[in-house]
Structure formats: C-alpha cells, structure tokens
Design a protein that fits this description.
By secondary structure, this protein is mostly helical. The chain has four helices and no strands. Keywords: Membrane, Transmembrane, Transmembrane helix.
Length: 137
C-alpha cells in the first residue's frame, strides 16, 4: 500500500482540490449568474454533480481502505496470542513484515479518513456563504 500511496497521493490530492474548486465554482455561478438559461443551468448542475461524485469516490474509497488496513493490522497484532505455541516465531515475522505504517494520504500530509468527506462539503458551504454575503449590506 505504501507504493500505491507513493504513486497516487499527489494525483489524488489534485483530484480532490480540482473537484472542490469545480463544485464551488459551478454552485457559485448557478446562484449568482444573471443569465438564467435552462441549458446553462443543466450543464453547470451536471458538471458540479460529476465533480462532487469524483471527489467523494476518491476520498471515501481511500478512507475505507485505510480503515480495512487498520483492522487487518490489529488482527495481525493479536495473532501471536491466539497461537501461543508459535508465539516468538509469529511475533518476529509479523513485526518484520506487517507492522509498518500503511495508509493512503493526500500528498503525504493528510491521512484520509471518513471525516474529510463531510468536512470538504462543510468547507464548500462555508466559503459559499462567505462569498455570497461579501457584497451584501
């Protein structure tokens, strides 16, 4: 999993950032656009929905993968205690091969978990409200 993270952590980060920017820009242009043509509205809604789904698929699949890796690591930690006759042999092999820190990240600085999915939507809403009320008196 570390090799996968080395190869795909920066493209995943770019996908999430681009997805957030696209969703925000499409929603902002729908709300504050003076042109109210149905074709333009439909294209912006479908584009925003596509980018939101892409962003969420990347984040949710990585978060679930990290959770499964953590559960597998916990099972491997308990394995020597379940087989006490081979305790030392199993413990040394597990320590050597399986107890490394394996997790999928966004460009090596944020380990993906479930909370980032909700936090990203909250961030988009917060920035939308801030920019929407910026010009109001």
């Amino acid at each position: 999993m570390n090799k996968f993270d080395d190869s795909f952590s920066s493209p995943a980060f770019m996908t999430v950032i681009f997805g957030m920017f696209s969703v925000f820009w499409n929603a902002y242009s729908i709300v504050f656009s003076p042109i109210n043509v149905q074709e333009v509205y439909f294209s912006k809604v479908s584009s925003g929905f596509f980018h939101l789904l892409t962003q969420q698929f990347v984040m949710i699949s990585a978060a679930l993968t990290n959770e499964m890796a953590f559960q597998a690591q916990n099972v491997m930690k308990r394995l020597p205690y379940k087989l006490p006759m081979h305790y030392e042999e199993i413990k040394s092999k597990i320590k050597k091969n399986f107890l490394r820190d394996n997790s999928l990240t966004l460009w090596k600085f944020y380990v993906l978990d479930r909370s980032i999915s909700i936090a990203s939507i909250g961030t988009l809403l917060t920035y939308g409200i801030l920019l929407g009320t910026l010009g109001k008196d």
